[in-house]
Write a structure and sequence with these properties.
The protein has about 450 residues and is α/β, with parallel strands linked by helices.
């Protein structure tokens, strides 16, 4: 008897769940059937490129997906176990109709999932992912006869990817960089590329570790103590930490200060983009300092919902030179439309070589406002309804309310964003204010209001 499939594994921009609870090889076989059917019927295509991250559950899930795809007559180009960027780059080079990457990104090792992208690296938008979901839930698949089954070909995802970076980055100065791969997928690409480019690399957790026992796969500040200490003790020019699959990079300056995505994005905008024009894409959670720092240089700032899919899609449509996602996804379309984390530290190294200033000096030039992020546990089944109720209440009470993604209230001395996570059973509350006192007052007030609605819904939901 096949495993029942929960709608909850289908998020706004990927599929995720606990291995052998929410997802399994059986589930991934059906997802493969649906993806193959979608490529044939909706895209009129014939090829999917797929790779996977380093997790222990990735091989069985990947091969089950491949079996499903080929049963529909769609061909597979298989990159194997790679970093995110290696598979996305290879998919682009092979002109794939669809690129799939098996990963749960920053989540713990018992989780896994899959992301989908077009051949140019733009993430599959929510409505298209929901079309694949509907095929899965309806068991509506186009399965071919034995003589029309799709073929599987293993392809090299390393050589062309490495050569791309070798042709786009040249360093005269041997900068010292602490490289924290967290034992995850970036161990498969970053150390070799950094070293070959002539950077003095100080490795931190750069041996493959599919269980993430060396450090959690989420590069939150609390997980980066070893990297921070390494930067300070080894007197590195900067450090970088990657997440589980390699689509986020967190930068640490030469004093050990961990930069926010906003700060890294501002530095990339100020020093890494030659022509100061065009639209920079930022999500609704980004600091107002991004606009304050980059608009006077000639850029236009455009807000979008949170999520890497929205970021890549909008960057393509706007021909943007830069995209900033508050969680750490950064894109420089000069190189790729997708959020390959390897580009960010190499661009920082290029900037440091050019400006001839330590990174900390560039950071201190950026005025930042105090911010606070809170995560409230809330079941997937009710989290969106909770936020919807907040939207209705706050829209009536406040003048400046943005409901593009969750609900954001803008006040004269700060702002608050409340949104349901698309990937986890939590509601996130982000606050930014002109000073710490206002920050605490706003956070306390809106946390209480959110908890009140959650408790009410728990009591009234069957």
């Amino acid at each position: 008897m096949s495993q029942p499939i929960s709608k909850q594994i289908f998020r706004a921009y990927d599929i995720r769940g606990l291995y052998n609870k929410d997802i399994s090889p059986d589930v991934f076989y059906k997802i493969g059937l649906a993806a193959g059917t979608y490529v044939k019927q909706m895209m009129k295509g014939s090829q999917i490129v797929i790779g996977s991250d380093i997790r222990q559950s990735s091989p069985p899930l990947t091969h089950a997906f491949i079996a499903g795809v080929t049963a529909t007559g769609v061909h597979i180009k298989y990159t194997g176990t790679t970093s995110f960027g290696q598979t996305l780059f290879t998919g682009g080079e092979l002109h794939a109709d669809l690129i799939a990457f098996v990963t749960a990104s920053h989540l713990p090792p018992e989780w896994n999932g899959i992301k989908f992208y077009y051949g140019d690296g733009v993430g599959l938008p929510e409505d298209k992912l929901m079309a694949i979901r509907d095929l899965v839930l309806r068991d509506f698949f186009e399965v071919v006869s034995w003589d029309k089954i799709g073929q599987v070909q293993s392809v090299d995802a390393k050589a062309g990817y490495k050569n791309f970076f070798f042709s786009h980055f040249k360093f005269k100065k041997k900068l010292k960089v602490a490289l924290d791969c967290g034992g995850a997928s970036m161990t498969l690409s970053a150390p070799e590329i950094f070293t070959t480019l002539g950077l003095h690399t100080v490795p931190v957790y750069c041996d493959p570790d599919p269980t993430f026992s060396q450090r959690p796969s989420d590069p939150k500040p609390k997980n980066l103590t070893t990297l921070v200490e390494t930067v300070k003790q080894q007197r590195c020019d900067f450090g970088v930490a990657f997440d589980g699959d390699g689509d986020r990079a967190v930068i640490v300056d030469n004093t050990g200060k961990i930069l926010s995505a906003d700060q890294t994005g501002i530095i990339l905008g100020k020093y890494g983009i030659k022509e100061k024009k065009g639209t920079i894409i930022v999500n609704v959670e980004c600091s107002k300092s991004v606009k304050e720092q980059l608009e006077p240089l000639g850029f236009t700032i455009k807000q979008i919902p949170v999520g890497h899919t929205f970021l890549t899609l909008e960057a393509k449509q706007e021909h943007a030179p830069l995209g900033i996602e508050s969680s750490g996804h950064l894109i420089l379309p000069e190189y790729f439309l997708f959020d390959d984390a390897l580009v960010v530290p190499l661009k920082i190294a290029e900037i440091l070589e050019h400006v001839k200033k330590p990174l900390h000096e560039l950071v201190t030039e950026i005025p930042m406002y105090p911010t606070k992020k809170e995560e409230i546990e809330c079941a997937d089944e009710i989290k969106f309804d909770v936020v919807q109720q907040l939207k209705q209440k706050l829209t009536k009470e406040f003048e400046h309310v943005n409901t593009m993604d969750g609900v954001r209230v803008d006040l004269p001395d700060g702002w608050i964003l409340i949104r349901a996570s698309n990937t986890s059973p939590i509601i996130r509350l982000t606050t930014e204010a002109d000073n710490e006192t206002i920050l605490q007052d706003l956070t306390t007030q809106f946390l209480a209001r959110t908890h009140e609605i959650i408790e009410h819904m728990k009591a009234t939901t069957p």
